Model the fold of this input.
Amino acid sequence: MWTYNKKLQYPVNIKTPNPAAAKFIMSQAGGPDGELGASMRYLSQRFSMPYKEVMAILTDIGTEELGHLEMVSTIMHQLTRNMTIEEIKEAGFETYFVDHTAGVYMQAAAGFPFDALCFASKGDAITDLFEDMAAEQKARTTYDNILRLVDDPDIIEPIKFLREREIVHFQRFGEALRIVQDNLNSKNFYAINPSFDL
Amino acid sequence: MTREEMLRRVQILHFVLVDVNEYLDTHPNCERALCFFHKYNELYKQAVAEYESAFGPLTAASVKSTESWTWVEEPWPWEVED
Done:
């Protein structure tokens, strides 16, 4: 169960709308390595995790990712406020505008809609945690790419915060993987699937 | 303190708790981290109480008014702060 807190995890106050930037930042909401996929991946995987510490970390990081989805969605909303039709055309935003106006919709930068394939819940503790570590690095690379493309400090600050969290979560998932392996036969980690056989 | 300054304090303390909570998930026997968690949890609760008594509820459960549903009155987080 969740309770909503009426605040962002980190403040987002973008004074200058910029629909051209919204076009690629939206990928970190609904794209292949975005926050929606991250949250749902961890919150799905935890059900088959055999160890309590790992259930805990998937629950708590999955919850934090929901807060990150809210931050990226807020960035999209603030970048597309008060647009004129001229600004929409100039920014090349009309392909999004025609389907969603200035609403927040989950899609990748290249335009394909959110895809649940990125949940990647395999039902194997080792496989899932390697997936999660890779996912954090992929999101970190995407944030690095976004930082190459923007120069407004109002956008840069929250994106830098989100990028740093990917690195912390990579560390926590590495520790979770070590906890799983410490519980297994060190001569052959793959003798069983601890999510299925225990 | 202004609304924005008080909200910032709540956000900072909440972030401290999120970060140490995740650390404790994979280090549940770390006494230093546990002590740190309890210390900052007290500061967080105090900051939330001060914010809510001045500027209204951060969660629906903390609505105090018997006159009107104050949950809908305060700005939502995606609105640009002045």
